[in-house]
UniProtKB/TrEMBL annotation:
Pfam families from the UniProt entry: Mid1 (PF12929)
Identification of the protein by name: 1463_t:CDS:1
GO molecular function: calcium channel activity
Alphabetical keyword list: Membrane, Transmembrane, Transmembrane helix
Gene3D superfamilies xrefs: Frizzled cysteine-rich domain
Residues passing through the membrane, by range: 26-48, 508-525
Keyword Transmembrane helix: yes
One biological process term in Gene Ontology: calcium ion import across plasma membrane
């Protein structure tokens, strides 16, 4: 037994040594695993941080989506093709910024210098840098939790100075194209919100642009329809290049984002056509709107490779159905507003009734105008040195259409004159009988229309305008500064004509002009 004890002790000691050795191996193995895990994290953490990287084609927009807490990255494909390293340069930057990775590549500095020698040579031979135009539009649901960064680093969002402000859903900036990267970051991961957006990068110019100029002129509304005419579009352009959206309610701070505007559109565009009416060139007619409701109208275009969104126009539909918007009349082609009407007639039928009444009256005028030698080239025979029959005919037509086709407004509106009982002229009385409408509130024609007839037609024609005492029974007047509106209220119906040449001219001045015209005409006939 005593002989066995040393052997037992030796065996126990050997066992303890084996256990210690195993523990040491396990410890070393754990250390190795941790080291490998650290290296893996060092290598792949930046890649995981990127989450998603997308390559854009120069000059082409793309749609994107992102969830709260994530970041999407974008760069131009042409940039990668022009570089020697391509995707290797992405990892090159990651190695440069990570000390652990640099230990794994002790010869990295020399390798990097060799790899980018050709690129540096090209840069020296082409000192002028291309400029990239970055356009980002937030589509939904809001822009308050989205951040946009533009920089030349691997992770632009790490550079706070690279943040681009988002103005009502749109972010625009210019940056050197070389090495450009865009980061779109959805902050506040607790929201768990899905965001959508559009992004485009171009070296030729912005793919999207917001114009601070109001795109539309509001012609008029009724209780269910609205007519607007563009201020900027050229009638000779392709109508398909121009579009319009009508929005209501909250825009969620996205009023400068075209993709958001299109998603919020309500109502239907019934007709879009070119017109020479007023200052606009393309008209849009919206239908199926709600009565007594406020809307925001947006005009946008797509010409060349750039989409443009103009500043919005605000409008409100009328509360009752006693007025109907008519436009595109064959004779009174400048009429584009709501007129008094009864039930049972379509807008086209209503327009035809008014237009025929005005046209029939005009035919009698043209017969009388033929009695005057107003188109003679001789100064002795002509009634005016600066006007002829064409001017007279056009002025009379504008005036006739305005007094024959009354402009209807709300019965509760602060502007306008309530027409009760018999209408103010026989022609409107005929329309009232045919259309079966009752009392209505009218925005009277501007007195400028009458003054223009006096100025443009022969004095012996005997056409005169009322003085101040009786003027407001049939006409309205502009402000002294030439404005047709007082705030949002239209003071008189200008027939969408440009009266800037008479800005500030009052009725007394026009009386002197009329007297001078008569004196000149009489002198020519003597």
């Amino acid at each position: 037994m005593r002989l066995l004890q040393p052997l037992e002790k030796h065996s126990a000691l050997k066992h303890r040594q084996s256990v210690l050795y195993s523990c040491t191996n396990i410890s070393r193995l754990l250390t190795i695993i941790i080291s490998i895990y650290t290296v893996i994290l060092a290598v792949f953490l930046p890649i995981a941080h990127c989450q998603q990287t997308f390559v854009l084609t120069d000059g082409i927009k793309t749609n994107g989506a992102i969830v709260s807490g994530n970041t999407n990255y974008y760069h131009l494909s042409a940039q990668l093709q022009s570089r020697s390293g391509g995707l290797e340069e992405v990892f090159a930057r990651a190695i440069d910024e990570n000390d652990e990775l640099r230990k794994l590549y002790p010869k990295w500095d020399s390798l990097k210098k060799s790899a980018f020698t050709s690129r540096s040579l090209v840069s020296r031979q082409n000192p002028s840098q291309k400029v990239a135009y970055v356009s980002v539009s937030i589509c939904s649901p809001t822009a308050d939790a989205i951040q946009v960064y533009v920089d030349s680093s691997q992770f632009p969002e790490k550079n706070q100075s690279a943040m681009i402000p988002i103005d009502e859903g749109a972010a625009l900036t210019i940056h050197p194209a070389d090495g450009l990267r865009v980061a779109i970051k959805a902050i506040d991961p607790t929201r768990k919100t899905n965001y959508t957006y559009e992004i485009g990068i171009s070296t030729a110019g912005y793919l999207y642009y917001f114009n601070d100029t109001e795109g539309f002129h509001l012609d008029d509304t009724d209780s269910a329809n609205a007519l607007l005419t563009t201020r900027v579009a050229d009638a000779t352009s392709n109508l398909d290049n121009y579009g319009a959206s009508l929005a209501t309610g909250s825009l969620n701070n996205l009023s400068r984002s075209l993709c958001a505007i299109k998603q919020l559109t309500v109502g239907n565009v019934l007709q879009r056509n070119a017109t020479n009416r007023g200052n606009g060139q393309v008209s849009f007619y919206f239908r199926e709107l709600n009565a007594r409701s406020q809307y925001v109208a947006f005009l946008y275009s797509n010409e060349g490779n750039t989409e443009t969104l103009w500043a919005p126009t605000f409008l409100q539909t009328k509360p009752v159905s006693g007025c109907t918007v008519i436009y595109n009349l064959p004779f009174c082609d400048k009429v584009a507003y709501a007129v008094p009407t009864g039930a049972g007639k379509t807008p086209n039928e209503i327009a035809a009734i008014y237009d025929n009444l005005a046209n029939n009256t005009f035919q009698n005028f043209t017969e009388n105008l033929r009695q005057f030698p107003c188109n003679e080239s001789s100064n002795q025979a002509s009634y005016s040195l600066v006007r002829n029959c064409d001017d007279c005919r056009a002025a009379y037509k504008d005036w006739l259409c305005a007094i024959t086709i009354p402009r209807c407004t709300d019965s509760n509106a602060v502007n306008g004159v309530l027409r009760q009982g018999r209408p103010r002229n026989v022609v409107i009385e005929q329309a009232q009988t045919t259309l079966n409408f009752g009392d209505y509130k009218e925005i009277s024609p501007c007195i400028d229309l009458c003054y223009n007839v006096v100025r443009s037609c022969p004095a012996l024609f005997g056409f005169g305008c009322p003085e101040n005492k009786t003027l407001f029974s049939s006409y309205g007047e502009r402000l002294k500064n030439g404005s047709f509106t007082n705030g949002t209220n239209l003071l008189c119906n200008p027939m969408d004509l440009d009266w800037s040449f008479t800005s500030g001219v009052n009725s007394l001045v026009w009386q002197w002009i009329t007297l001078f015209t008569i004196i000149v005409a009489v002198a020519m006939l003597l």
